What does this fold into?
Amino acid sequence: MLALPAAAGVLHQPFWINACTRIVIFALVAASLDLIVGYGGLVSFGHAAYFAVGGYTVAVLAQHGIDAAPVAWVVAVALSALLAVVVGALSLRTSGIFFIMITLAFAQMVFFALIAIKAWGGNDGLPLGARATLLGLDLRDPTVLYFVCLTLLVAFVACAAQLVESRFGIVLRGIRGSERRVLALGFPTFRYKLVAFVIAGAGAGLAGALWADYARFVSPDMASWSRSGEFLVMVILGGIGTLAGAVYGAALLLGLESVLSGLTEHWMLPLGLILLAIVLFAKRGVYGWIAGRDDG
Amino acid sequence: MSLALEQLLNGLQFGVMIFLLAAGLTLVFGIMGVINLAHGSIYMLGAFVAASVAGTGAPFVVAVLAGAAAAGLAGIAIELVVIRRLYARHHLDQVLATFALILIANDGVSMIWGKTPLNMAVPAALSPAVTLGGFIYPAYRLVLIAAGILIAAALYVLISRTRLGMLIRAGATHRETVAALGVDISRLNTVVFALGAVLAGTAGALLAPILAVQVGMGEQILILTFVAIIVGGLGSIRGAFAGALLVGVVDTLGRAYIPVILKPIAKPEIADSLGGGLSAVAIYVLMAIVLVWKPRGLFPVGPR
Amino acid sequence: MRIVARASLAALLTLSMAGSSAFAADPAPLKIGMITTLSTAGGYLGEDMRDGFQLAIDEEHGKLGGVPVQVVVEDDGLKPANGKLIADKFRIQDKIDVFTGIIYSNVALAVVPGLVESGAFYLSPNAGPSQLAGKGCNKNFFVVSWQNDTPHEATGQYAQYLGLKKMVVVAPNYTTGKDAVAGFKRTFHGEIAEEIYTALDQTDYSAELARIRAANADGIFYFLPGGLGINFLKQFTQAGLKKTMKVVLPEFSLESHVVAAVGNAAEGLYGTAHWLKDLPYAANKKFVSEFIKKYHREPTPYASQGYDTAKLLASGLRAVNGDVSKADAFRAALRKADFQSTRGAFKFGPNQFPIQDWYSARVVRDAKTGKLVIRGVGKIMAQAGDVYSNACKL
Amino acid sequence: MAEPALAVRRLRKSFGALVVTADLDLDVATGECHAVIGPNGAGKTTLLDQLAGELVPDGGRIVFAARDVTRLGPDARARLGMARSFQIPTLIADLTAEDNVALAVQARTATAMRFWRSAYRDSTLRLPARAALARVGLAARGSVAAGDLAHGEQRLLEVALALAREPTLLLLDEPMAGLGHDESRAMIALLSSIKGTLTILLVEHDMEAVAHLADRVTVLVAGRAVASGSYDAVRADPVVRSAYLGGDA
It folds into this structure.
């Protein structure tokens, strides 16, 4: 299923390659978010902040002449994970809607900071140069970038799938089901939640780094609350707690958006109706629908 | 000194403005447990209907009532068609559904009314600014403050003194008990949702004369409203009122004084823009501090 | 009520779906990629620009400069990343060579460099960011509107001319806002009593208004695009501040949409513009009457910019008979700006940004209709270019 | 008497004006089954929540395993060897019964985080989990989601979770509540079988169960311990009779 976009015919059409790359990058964010939303019950409404930090890291490093991807990406992941440590440590005392809102608060701080920092372009954003390499590969070649992104997505989803089945993952699911019970069993739940939150933040940071190299441009709207909302919509659309579903959710939302906006200026209305139909009639999201597990 | 008083009054006024929206949101959200992102869209609808009714030359009060009524009808329709099917489902399904409603509402409104912002004039009797102690204040804003406090009081009476209020309070915590009393829970839900929508529509209609009536006005203020009810603590009108006032005052005082405070410390260009940036995030910092300190807001309802 | 008068949503939807992709009947019209902002609160700017552009095509019955054209429009939703994606699609998949439409500078900065480097032409009907006016200029990039700073320079000039001594300036706290203030200060030499930077999503301005009142200035300049300016002006007027201060505005904050949306609050405002409805040029008179006839609303500067952009494109297409692959000839023709602009004398500077006149204007009540109109007062800057063009090496 | 397994000194807790624990002293000897009984609203569950660490007392001390645990959270107390069951079954509804127990086993065996190996195929978790299920009579129900179990089965699973933790002190909050006659019998039999292998603090309404299981009984009225002793002694206590047992038996 992930290989679908790689179908031979698409390979010589850079537009389709780019469209698929975009989906793959967003799918990576959605999968990382699903890790905490779907398995930890931690609904973050500020996931765009890590995406933006990852992207800006790569862009700012490129601004200073560092365009070797492994270095830039590792720094991007590290910085977004660091932000997640700080935000998580402060936010994870709350739960439910309060958690939703406090994560939003921190993301808004990142957003307004990016707008205000003139050295990084402020609201105009920051373009990236023509060069970026990954161990000798030219990342400015759409096909190369696509396969690099796809590889990272597959790796992330595979690792995350392994993770949620591991001892750590079971604890995480336990926390989602009943944190009180998991605490009573003796697990320091805060630590588990924090680790999951940081892994998710790092995943979004990696996606942000990829985005910077894909779009060759970063701007503060990467951190906007509507972006965070979009990520959540992808996760819900795909089916909460199904990592592969997050990929479908990203593909479906982006696909619908670009198809409908190509058809009509009033594309939001049909998009809204379709989303509404999906949420009303497909109880476990698109993934549940496709996999025939609509037992919710 | 009178400037400080004026700024405080500004904060109060802004807080009351947020409260008009927060009241409806906290009812639906705190009591029914529905995260209604479309609350801002209902508010937008109220403003658009009020502005276009006022545009036909109808009196101000009629326009506001029309806005509130249209919002109420939209609320009933949304509850019956969408929300009702989602009570038993994951909260996030409600988020997705109401997000879809935002898209539909924004596009629908721009199809009906066009993309150009509408105008709604302040009623002539209320348009002059009045002198108040040492400063001049717009009369209409005083009316807004009064209206907000009046609505808060009316809601308080409704919730604490009437049978409907009793059912609403009971429905929040003991749904089964209420059902056992022979009350039609789903009717109660519709009523609560409609009430929330009427409040949002009223807010939209009342604010239309001082704001740009345009597509997207709902989302802009929705976030602020969420911040207010979270800071105040969910589910009670009192919490929403306190949260809204706090957010209003902090935001206003931040915008009024952070740049002034920074001026002697930093270079002017930096002070001005840094001040602007800091005051923009002031309420988010406030919310983060409140939640780190009190994870369930300042005035949480009931024990954990 | 208007709701009743209009068709149902569903019918409208079908219509717009059917209508958007079929403009011309000729077999192989030249495609023009229009990336613009149609949704969000800023959507009406893109709509005006698009309608103005389309009006020029309709005048020639589906042609520009005698060449059949088809405009492919897509909404960027004010997101730079979306704009870039649309640009990729238009450029790579639809093989479009001529682009236009972007309203907002942040979208333009994300989209334009990539497009023009790939050999496409971009004719800007609105955004004219400084980054693309100096060192970053490009031979395939033409701006029909203005360089972003110029409207503010004109406004500063006007404030100076009005004899204002002490001004308050207000702008959103982002780069475009700061550039606006810098532009204003370049030509206004009086005292700046207070520089106020506001949030991008602000709805209430009472705290700022109190600061403004306390500043005791005799005039105010603000750059608050779209709805922000409408909110601000309503609240400013309600606070009674208009009685004590002259309001001098760039044209973003003083066009017919704004005047309609704030009602009486607009009366007596001062403004500057590069285009006005009552400019006495033949091309303008034709544009204004045709626009009102077709769209039943007042034209705005954005509409005139869209119209002029189409006219410029027409002049270029006529020169190469529609063959834009003759890039050098096409470019040379565009550079001549050989068209009748709605704003009178128009030519390009060395960076292919406009050199044009700027006018002062005032909002007055029309004696006959009793409606508020923006009326030209005089010329405030003649044949003005921009300060960045020296840095441009073309 | 040897060092008690659990010692409570002058414990105080109130919600506003309502005093729920009033200067309570309580000793639970190692290995005994100590029942806490009392009328509704006597503060039994609140006491248990304070012992388990879910509620922070207003004053007083709780000593467990020779440590002052008054300020420790529930997870830290669990790691010291406390385990509890909840009055309203508190299980992870979307995990199977076996996964629930496996989680408890994991809590005992591994403190470090493990991210890679599948917990579903880990015999060091699965075998003890199945054993614990078998012990409470749920061997055949291991693959059923905890939320889908019948009420009585959920109660048994609660006990299985607590046992799988291999605690030294077991806090049981009304394990009989809501059980039918046969289910009650089974639960009493189960608890009898573990009695003596560890210390048990049993909060219970069901006098039959208390009579069967308790070595010692403390009677709680309005947050205060009014009597303590053997079941029969307490039963005979006139204070208790008037306050509580009057209508019973």
